[in-house]
Amino acid sequence: MPLPGPPLLAHLMLAAGATSGFRHLLAQPWLAAAGIVCAMASVVWSRAAARLARAMRRIEDETRTSGTSSEAAKLARSAFNKDLHAAILYAVLAGGLVLASFSTSPWFEGLLLAVTIPAVVSLRYAPRFLSEARLAEQRSRLERRAEEVLAQDQLAPRLAPETLPAYEGFDIGWVYEPGSGMMAGDFYDVFPTGPNRLAVVIGDVAGHGMEPSITAFQVKHVLRTFLRQFRDPAQALEELNKTLSTMGRPEDMVSVCTVIFDTEANTMRHASAGHPPAFVWQHGDMRPLRATGPLLALDPTSGYFSRDLPLEVGDLVVLYTDGLTEARSGGQLFGEERVAHIVRRDPGQDTTILCKTLLEAARDFSSPLHDDVAILAIRRV
């Protein structure tokens, strides 16, 4: 291999000398590299702080113009202070690392102690930071509640419609009262399953919030399909139970009560999955129709049965959700007996008036109503 010529050898010697000089100048070059990285981080946080500063000024100007106080301005200032704090911290750290890289002297490394200054500032203003964090948490809760209210405006008419179609041979009344808390999973439905068959459904999904309401919406429409597919409502509930069990949401316990009115056979067939008892008025007597199986989504192998009753003109069936019977006054519940007493007092009154009477009685007993209340009354005419 030929040896390098004089010009090339001279360049290599200069480069080696420059490298040696650089290494001699920077006793700890790895600290310099770390300082450069910290400087870049400081630039990033500074740009973020600058953006937040502009947003903060804009919000404060809007607040002064409107003459109102704004939590948004406080949160913007908090976010700006935190980004500015991070930018200063990285800038101090970058300067300390770069200066410390020039020497192994403990005095140069002592410059890194300047990092404690932003740390002390953090400790000094820790209560303010925590207060601002709580404010941000409260604001996020309010925003979440606002989202749920908007969603309720969309879901509520589908779960508990304000109007129901009229069906020949039946007088149908209904009422729905949302509770004072978060939206719940109450729903009801009335629809034909055949030329001479009318299905009446009422149900409730445990819990409050968006997820129970979405589950209620799914249950309502899946049950429609099964009740049209199977003549026996108990079989429809069994299929619905299997479907819910495969969804992998065991916390969504669902109660449902179904009554199928058959005007050709003059019968009504009742099946209930853990729902509060319906009341039927027949031949001058009141009787409860209790659950014919457990709550849905508890066990995919659960069985359900149905009961058949004769259907005659004047017969009345009242269905409701547990928000009615579980209305509280102190430690006392409104209870099933009060429901039965009100129905028994005047079973021949208009079904809509009957539903409103039950709701008003619950309001008088427990004001406000914390849980949703849905009531259906169906009379054969």
What does this structure look like?
The protein is α+β, with helices and mostly antiparallel strands. It has eleven helices and twelve strands. The strands form three sheets. It has a five-stranded antiparallel sheet with strand order 1-12-9-6-7. α3 crosses α6, α6 runs parallel beside α7 and α7 (210-229) crosses α8.
Which structural class do the helices and strands define?
Answer: alpha+beta
Let me know the number of strands.
12
Termini separation (Å)? 114 Å
Strand order of the largest sheet: 1-12-9-6-7
- The coarse silhouette is elongated
Number of helices: 11
Helix content: 40-55%
- Helix and strand string, N-terminal first? HHHHHHEEEHHEEEEEEHEEHHE
Strand content: 15-25%
Radius of gyration: 36 Å
pLDDT average, as an integer? 81
Biggest sheet: strands, sense, closure?
5 strands, antiparallel
Low-confidence blocks of residues: 8-22
Set down the secondary structure blueprint:
Layout: H1 6-25, H2 29-66, H3 71-100, H4 106-109, H5 116-124, H6 126-159, E1 170-177, E2 184-194, E3 197-208, H7 210-229, H8 233-246, E4 254-262, E5 267-273, E6 278-282, E7 285-289, E8 307-310, E9 316-320, H9 322-325, E10 328-329, E11 332-333, H10 335-345, H11 351-365, E12 373-380
Antiparallel strand pairs: 1-12, 2-3, 3-4, 4-5, 5-8, 6-7, 6-9, 9-12, 10-11
Helix pairs in contact: 2-3, 3-5, 3-6, 6-7, 7-8
Task: Please describe the structure with a list of short key phrases separated by commas or semicolons.
alpha+beta, elongated, single chain, 381 residues, 5-stranded antiparallel sheet
